[in-house]
Every structure is written in C-alpha cells, then in structure tokens.
Amino acid sequence: MAKIVVDVMLKPEILDPQGKAVAAALPRLGFNFAKDVRQGKRFEIEVDGDPTPAQLADVEKAAEKLLSNPVIENFTVRVEK
C-alpha cells in the first residue's frame, strides 16, 4: 500500500492571516525560531500497491478541481511509502 500526498499552500503573494497569527503567537510562547509561518493543507490518499501514472494524473486533476483553489493556491503531489 502506498500513500499519495497532496500539499496545498497559498500562493506567496496571497496574505495568510492564520500563518501570521501563528507567527505572532510563537514568540509569546517562548519559541523564537520562526522568521515567518505559512499555513496549508495536506491530503493523504491511500492506494493499493504502487500508484500508477494514471492514478497520479487523476490525483493531479482532483487537486486542481477539488482539493485546491488554483486562483490563490499552489499544490504538489508526491508518493510516500
């Protein structure tokens, strides 16, 4: 069994208020390592066996049409074993 992972992030030019809120909260909690924070979404899709090129193409289409908003978000698709 393999896992296809789709990571969705706001495009860099889009404001990320949730990421800004987390970035502001980190130092208040004593964490001073972050220069900036961007918040995103992760989808894990399990398939039997190794994913085929056709399955990966279908996941790309699903990411474009359902899992992301291509106007304001970018996505990446990868296989995780």
TrEMBL record:
Keywords: ATP-binding, Cytoplasm, Ligase, Nucleotide-binding, Purine biosynthesis
Domain of life: Bacteria
Pathway(s): Purine metabolism; IMP biosynthesis via de novo pathway; 5-amino-1-(5-phospho-D-ribosyl)imidazole from N(2)-formyl-N(1)-(5-phospho-D-ribosyl)glycinamide: step 1/2
One family name in Pfam for this protein: PurS
Record GO terms (molecular function): ATP binding; phosphoribosylformylglycinamidine synthase activity
Chief location bin: cytoplasm
Reaction catalyzed: N(2)-formyl-N(1)-(5-phospho-beta-D-ribosyl)glycinamide + L-glutamine + ATP + H2O = 2-formamido-N(1)-(5-O-phospho-beta-D-ribosyl)acetamidine + L-glutamate + ADP + phosphate + H(+)
Broad EC category: ligase
Gene Ontology annotations for the cellular component aspect, listed alphabetically: cytoplasm
EC number(s) stated in the UniProt entry for this protein: 6.3.5.3
Subcellular location: Cytoplasm
Protein purpose: Part of the phosphoribosylformylglycinamidine synthase complex involved in the purines biosynthetic pathway. Catalyzes the ATP-dependent conversion of formylglycinamide ribonucleotide (FGAR) and glutamine to yield formylglycinamidine ribonucleotide (FGAM) and glutamate. The FGAM synthase complex is composed of three subunits. PurQ produces an ammonia molecule by converting glutamine to glutamate. PurL transfers the ammonia molecule to FGAR to form FGAM in an ATP-dependent manner.
Quaternary structure (record): Part of the FGAM synthase complex composed of 1 PurL, 1 PurQ and 2 PurS subunits.
Family note: Belongs to the PurS family.
Protein name from the UniProt record: Phosphoribosylformylglycinamidine synthase subunit PurS
Gene (name only): purS
